Amino acid sequence: AGGGRAALRACGVHNVCRLLTRRAHGFYARDAGVAHRKNLGLLRKIMCQESTKFKNVWTTHSASPIAYERGRIYMDNYQCCISSIAQEPRILYQKSKCAKSEKIEDALLLECPLGEMLPSPSDYKASLIVLTVQNWLLRLSADSGEVLEKVYLAGSCCKFFRYLSWDTPQEVMIVKSAQNKLPAAARQAGIQQSVLFYLAVFQVLPLSFIGMLEINKKIFGNSVTDVAVSNGILIVMYSMGLVRLYNFKAILEQFMEQPFELGQEFNWNGQVGVVGKYPFGLPCNIKITDTPPLLFEASSLENAFQIGGYPWHYIITPNKKKHKGVFHICSLKDNALAKNGIQDMKCCSLEPDWIYFHPDMSGRIIHVGPNLIKVLKLKEVKNHADQMEIAEDFTIVANRENCVKNTVTVTASGRVVKKRFTSLDDDPEQETFKIVDYEDELDLLSTVAVTQIGADGRAHLDFHCNEHGNLLKSIPLKESWDVTYSHEVYFDKDLVLHIEQKPNRRFSCHVYQMVCDTAKDDD
């Protein structure tokens, strides 16, 4: 506190808000993270200079999907790892081709938490958590591919674990099974299957087993179609568009029958084995015997449901097909629709617009249409502090010509007939937004816009100021962009990666790196 007062006196600042702003901008050299913030600020300025270019330094092709995580490119079902940080991408490790029984179904990158003592030196380096088709959970070194830990999941309860996700990022991990479905013959014989999904819960670094539970239709209902866990909330989705939220932490505490640790010998329901070892796997030690208290429920088209903003709001689409593309923004406290809370771009397009809460934690909302991006904010209604309204913060508009065209035809009698029509909002011949992303370290909003020119599609990646939306930089992508196939674009500080799928399940990866044109600066 004394140091803070001294800083105030030294710089002549007598206002706390101004002091905090100056701290955020890195004015005080002894503050933690100041050097890092300054370096990122310099990188942003350099990157947005007119003389700075992004050069395509490397391209590769693969017969299997390509993945990217924090400076590492994974190919051949994670058997090959390539560093994209070097001046030219280089192989970190290359494993021999694995058998089908060892195929990796899903993966998560695990990074070391700051300021914590960990049991093993390998825990301080990045690692990759992977899930194999045979229900093994492996922790691999991100730099060498070495197996650091392995846990067998299945046991006798479930044979089909397929999905990895974070409950709390880099802290609590969820391993989810595929939906249990009886064979047709069993269903015809009248055999009932009540367990729909299994969820295994782990604390990471050090990797420890919290528990396994089943999602049972006897508890949650017959029409459950999917489940997810996020930020301590169990989300249950139903076939009629209903979404229900439950307190996941309370479920773990209330229905835990017995805690277990990995490597512990156990005698459980007549089975004797070691937790996490083959062939026993993990015990299902969380038994939900009664419907947990309901936190919240909402009905939304295709179960689309998001929570965010401040104060808390949620976004849904009314549960009728005619409302597709219409979004309602409501208060989580009392379900009240915010003023101007119905967002409808009235798009006439093949692909729908989409909406989500801004990942920069500002509480804003991003609404993306074919030719328009709206960044919206929540604010108090004037003279009504308890009511919120949706206001436009800024917009980004695609660079396109007038879409109205005239065609002239001549009938057999020689009469001239003029037809006037309006093309689709996502007409490939007009510039259309395909991807919107946020680079948190540089605080930039990135957009990818595509225009089809003849048989080729041309795309450019634009960087916008996240605060005001003004265009700072535009990078043309050299390769053709086929709008009929899937694309991913990653912008990671001074690196741009474009992963695309091509016909016949061929995949390509194009790497661009920042290059400063010093000759132009000297001129």
From TrEMBL:
Q: InterPro entries per the record?
A: DCAF17 (IPR031620)
GO cellular component terms, A-Z: Cul4-RING E3 ubiquitin ligase complex
For this UniProt record, the keywords arranged alphabetically read as follows:
Membrane, Transmembrane, Transmembrane helix
Q: Which species is listed as the source?
A: Gymnorhina tibicen
Biological process (GO) annotations held by this record are: protein ubiquitination
Question: This chain belongs to which protein, by name?
Answer: DCA17 factor
Q: Which Pfam families match?
A: DCAF17 (PF15802)
Residue intervals passing through the bilayer: 195-215, 227-246
